[in-house]
Amino acid sequence: MEKSIKKKIEKIAGEFIKKTSFDISCDIKDGENGVIALQFKTEDPDVLIGEAGQTLWEIQMILSRIIKKQIGMDTVIDLDINEYKQNKLRYLKEIAKEAADRVALMKREEILPAMPAFERRVVHTELALRSDVKTESIGEGYQRRVVIAPAD
Asked: Which pairing describes strands 76-81 and 35-42: parallel, antiparallel, or unpaired?
């Protein structure tokens, strides 16, 4: 990412943070595939993360739109607050592996709790290379779940 664009994004993120009235520090890094990684640190993350990360995703969407409008180009922002997403990814991968191990051992399918699309994708991706289990999503809307079943 060009330094001038990074400086603009730092300024925009800084102004956004000021308007929230939260005590937040921000670190900006170049992510993979042109993604701009914003790392927020705060003493009160629960309010900014929200239930199941919903508020975090909404803040990310709003901030992405503000940045896109002000710098005049498409940018992909990945906002994380107190490493919530990183920890969530680690947790989802662990849950997927443990469930897959049980399915492979017991030869019985297991249905994981309802998850948003992003979380289901993490589970599918984590288990895609395993030859002893297969995955599929079932259900509609907010009730979509991942089913882990023994491979045929």
From this structure: parallel
